[in-house]
Write a structure and sequence with these properties.
Elements (H helix, E strand, L loop, with lengths): L2 H7 L13 H12 L10 E7 L4 H7 L10 E7 L14 H18 L12 H8 L6 E8 L14 H4 L6
Helix pairs in contact: 2-4, 3-5
Bound molecules: flavin mononucleotide.
Amino acid sequence: MDFSELIQHRYSVRAYKPDPVEEDKLQQVLEAARLAPTAANRQPFRLIVLSTVNRQADLRRIYHRSWFSQAPLVIGVCGIPGEAWVRRDGQNYHYVDAAIALDHLILAAADLGLGTCWVAAFDVAAAREVLGLPEEAVPIAFTPLGYPADQPGPKERKPLAELVRYEHW
Ligand SMILES: Cc1cc2nc3c(=O)[nH]c(=O)nc-3n(C[C@H](O)[C@H](O)[C@H](O)COP(=O)(O)O)c2cc1C
């Protein structure tokens, strides 16, 4: 797949086969996240890889949809604000950096035939408890990682004219 095919092809997968994710594919998607750009190259994120085996109850506490724990793996990304670049007006970029890293992972997964789905609507307190997160880590998003068992729907996007301004708003 070339890049434009890849971004057309990626979609939010909400049904997964139980088939395992090969170790080399897991390492490839993690490597894609590692190579992501971050503000001032601070790399203020951590990826947490969870096996879903015997973790159904814990994972449902984090996010209640049944498909969330259907894939063999779930990956969470946390930001570390204390390690992140901070703009002069005080804006901390850990959220942006963590999102870029997870998106690199997600695109690499799609390239390998693996499915993912961004999940931000999770229970933060449950995530902190289940993952044993230290105070300095901010859970930002999760995704299942596994082989898709559904099909993409149509891509519904606003037209470019609505999304792009040239020179002036
Ligand atoms: C930051 C972010 C958070 C999201 N959170 C959720 C979520 O909690 N649950 C869910 O089912 N989908 C979630 N999604 C998936 C979006 O609904 C989906 O990307 C969007 O509808 C476009 O569809 P597509 O990914 O199939 O192209 C999230 C996507 C992003 C980028």
